[in-house]
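Holo model, magnesium ion. Inputs:
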Amino acid sequence: MSNMNCDFDPVNGRGNATVQSAVRLIDVSKEYPSGNQVLRALDGLTLEIPTGEFVAIVGRSGSGKSTLLNIMAGIDTPTSGQVWIGDVELSQMSDDALTEQRRERIGMVYQFFNLLSTLSVRENVALPALLAGDPEDEALSRADRLLAEVDMAHRQDAKPHMLSGGEMQRTGLARALIHQPTLVLADEPTGNLDSRTAEQVIGLLQELGQSHHTTVVLVTHSVEAAAYASRQVELLDGTVVSDLTNSV
Ligand SMILES: Nc1ncnc2c1ncn2[C@@H]1O[C@H](COP(=O)(O)OP(=O)(O)O)[C@@H](O)[C@H]1O
Ligand SMILES: [Mg+2]
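Output:
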């Protein structure tokens, strides 16, 4: 591993205007009230993620990883600072606009899969596209293509309770990509998988990111999972304490 040189200028943006960032956080803080004090979950965090990168966010429990991901997703709003997703700055947006932006541009992968138990695998995968207003036949045919890519075509009619953990998360990966997001955010996606299945899922996440030209932000505790990323950003107490490029 070598040190990553990240000369991001928060005022003028990148020097090279042809390289668009997928994500830019500029001096982002998030405070929570805690008794009569404040708890600073993020503390003046600045981070730039180029389009197409696969970055792992690592750091001990409580360091701010989930808060950071939720702010990128527009699920949480920062107390101060700017959050750019592509050319959109989130902190000025209404809740409705944030929801729409999330539906259109962001795919989420969850530790506990969050599959709907009454829907089949195929319906679970198609759902985000349907919620975004895509015609049903289009959503279902995209779901079929993605299920083939994650090797779940043979399980398309199964209900979630019939699946193994790895199958659930492969379904989760297909669902995250159904509406062709520019950014996939995954919070501990292997936290409930055994180590072998975890490696398969992260390998698949890496492959899908490349084949779909999608930027991927992976929050993980796992050293093995983080090694699949091209870059590792470590948080401590809500700030970046190291930023490393993974050697190939
Ligand atoms: N909704 C909340 N209300 C109060 N404190 C919170 C909330 N969410 C997170 N925190 C606190 O913010 C800090 C960072 O949490 P989190 O982002 O979940 O860390 P990580 O994902 O790295 O474990 C922790 O101290 C946590 O207790
Ligand atoms: Mg967390």
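The mean pLDDT is 91. The pocket of magnesium ion (ligand 2) is lined by residues 65-66 (CB under 6 Å).
Archived with the compound record.
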